[in-house]
Amino acid sequence: MIKAVMIDDELHCLNALDFMIKEYCPEVQVLEKCQSAENGIKAIEKWKPDLIFLDIEMPFMNGFELLEQLPEISFAIIFTTSYDQYAIKAIRFSALDYLMKPIEPGELVNAVKKVKEQRHLPFAEQFQMLLKKVQGKDVIFNKIAVPTSEGFELILADQVIRCEADNNYTHIFLKHNLKITACRTLKEMQEQIQDFRYFLRVHNSHIVNLNEVSKYIRGEGGYLVMSDGSSVNVSKSRKDSLLKLF
């Protein structure tokens, strides 16, 4: 069983999530539901959970401020939030997980599945990155946190040549013939790197670094030759958008 604590100032959100967990994630045991960050900290100290569902927007102390109060974070976290573009960007950047309200059962199941499959708890560095991103909105980051089966890796964004989908994983091809497999879908990777303007999704299965394109070969959609010699198909529907950038 995965021992869990839920923290959200809105009772109806707590009850709705609790119902969905009972219905769709029987492997999760909710030990306590907390309506404030202060009570959440007490519950974490009391139960030492494996997982917390943490709302970001709460009065007096938000979810990020709660994390800053903890001496260590020895559990997995799934953030829950209404649409907050900046907070979501910070969470994506740190390679952590979140659920958008109103929470969909399928998204909940996928998030819990990731917690079950991860070999390591999130690293302290991920939370440091998250909090720095939240606190310093003008800080420019040039690295990407890539979650892997072993934990996560920090890579320079401009070292990425291309990303290729492989079901629920993404293969990231780097300069110097390096390759990393991320435990993220291509859609999730696209959301994470969208602030780096030189990345473009050119196919359902491919994102490319436009700075690493060597050649475009015409065709119905055509294809790209990348700096490492690899070829990447361009879908017909994305061809015009690509060519406009050139």
TrEMBL record:
<keyword id="KW-0597">Phosphoprotein</keyword>
<dbReference type="InterPro" id="IPR001789">
    <property type="entry name" value="Sig_transdc_resp-reg_receiver"/>
</dbReference>
<dbReference type="InterPro" id="IPR046947">
    <property type="entry name" value="LytR-like"/>
</dbReference>
<dbReference type="Pfam" id="PF00072">
    <property type="entry name" value="Response_reg"/>
</dbReference>
<dbReference type="InterPro" id="IPR011006">
    <property type="entry name" value="CheY-like_superfamily"/>
</dbReference>
<feature type="domain" description="Response regulatory">
    <location>
        <begin position="3"/>
        <end position="116"/>
    </location>
</feature>
<protein>
    <submittedName>
        <fullName>LytTR family DNA-binding domain-containing protein</fullName>
    </submittedName>
</protein>
<dbReference type="GO" id="GO:0000156">
    <property type="term" value="F:phosphorelay response regulator activity"/>
</dbReference>
<dbReference type="Pfam" id="PF04397">
    <property type="entry name" value="LytTR"/>
</dbReference>
<dbReference type="InterPro" id="IPR007492">
    <property type="entry name" value="LytTR_DNA-bd_dom"/>
</dbReference>
<dbReference type="GO" id="GO:0003677">
    <property type="term" value="F:DNA binding"/>
</dbReference>
<feature type="modified residue" description="4-aspartylphosphate">
    <location>
        <position position="55"/>
    </location>
</feature>
<feature type="domain" description="HTH LytTR-type">
    <location>
        <begin position="144"/>
        <end position="246"/>
    </location>
</feature>
<keyword id="KW-0238">DNA-binding</keyword>
